[in-house]
Amino acid sequence: MLCGPIAGGVLATFFGFRVTFLIASLLLLIVFGLSWYFVQENFKPLKKTEKVAGIKQTILEQMNPHNLLLAFFITMLIQATNNAVNPMLSLYLSTMLHNNSSLALISGIISALPGIATVISAAALGHLGDEWGQKKVLLYAFSLGMLTYLIQGFATHIWLFAGLRFLTGFSIAALLPAVQSLLTRETKPQALGRIFSYNQTFQALGNVLGVMFGSIVAAKLGYHSMFLFIVLLEAAGLLFSIFIQKTPTRADIKLSKSNIK
Fold first, then answer.
1. What three-state secondary structure class fits 50?
2. Which of 2, 47, 192, 257 is most buried per CB count within 10 Å?
3. What is the average pLDDT across 76-87?
4. Rounded to an integer, what distance in angstroms lies between the CA atom of residue 209 and that of residue 36?
């Protein structure tokens, strides 16, 4: 999210797109080798006599199935909003830069700006999630995302657009950790793998739907309408977040521990 877009933009500018793909393939091969030889896992497979509960039963057995289902759909919307703009970013920037020879490099830098904001703010926003509860963080983050995407759709200057992309990174930095924390708190330890795999399915679905519908809207109605479409997705995420049942804050956890003592 940070190094990838910048490195990709630099490589594409100086060496062309073909070399960029070759280097990306080489990096994936290196990751495969490192994972194969150095990652250790204490895995105990289920016995043949043991049966794994189905999807519906697994969700219903958790502490708060209502929040889990909302978290799945919120994850899908987060990924849809994050990926709807990415395929169109270079084309949208070309309308501001007017055939600039450094378009690939500038696009890579602007694509990395949300990642920079995430690196800066992720730890602090995670702390706020523990203090305020994840629901409040989701509400504020979706509201910020709606505002920044709305203005991006009407930005005419490259530096204004870059600043808004940077601000969008603060929203992204808050959203996914809040959802993951919510999933962890509402899931029994023995079902964490299954619940996170279900969430991964919704995440992949969001990737597909965001890119597909974002591209369709941009092609049929223009780039400005694409950003309005993203604002609607953010609004849907905000609506889902409103219905999340209260999540415990750090103060609530301390109070419950003191009551136990």
1. coil
2. 2
3. 90
4. 32
How far lies 208's CA from each of 48, 65, 84, 198, in Å? 35, 25, 9, 16
Instruction: Copy the structure tokens of residue 73.
Output: 């759909």
> Of how many residues is the chain composed?
261
How is the chain split into domains, by residue range? 1-40, 54-260
Residue 129 and residue 79 in contact, taking contact as beta carbons nearer than 8 Å: no
Domain spanning 54-260, CATH architecture: Up-down Bundle (1.20)
Please report, for residues 33, 119, 199, the alpha-carbon distance to residue 3 in angstroms, rounded to integers and kept in the order given: 21, 11, 26
Cα distance between residue 33 and residue 16, in whole Å: 27
Residue type, 54: G
Q: Helix 103-132 and helix 134-152: axis angle, to 10°?
A: 150
**pTM, rounded to two decimals:** 0.78
Burial of 11 by CB count in 10 Å (0-12 exposed, 13-18 middle, 19+ buried)? buried
CB-based contacts of 132, cutoff 8 Å, min separation 6: 249
Over residues 89-110, the pLDDT tens digits come to 888 888 887 766 677 778 888 8
In whole angstroms, what is the distance from residue 120 CA to residue 173 CA? 9
pLDDT tens for 47-58 read 665 566 788 888
Instruction: Kindly state the tokens that stand for 239.
Output: 């609506």
HSE at residue 109, side-chain half, CA atoms within 13 A, is 13
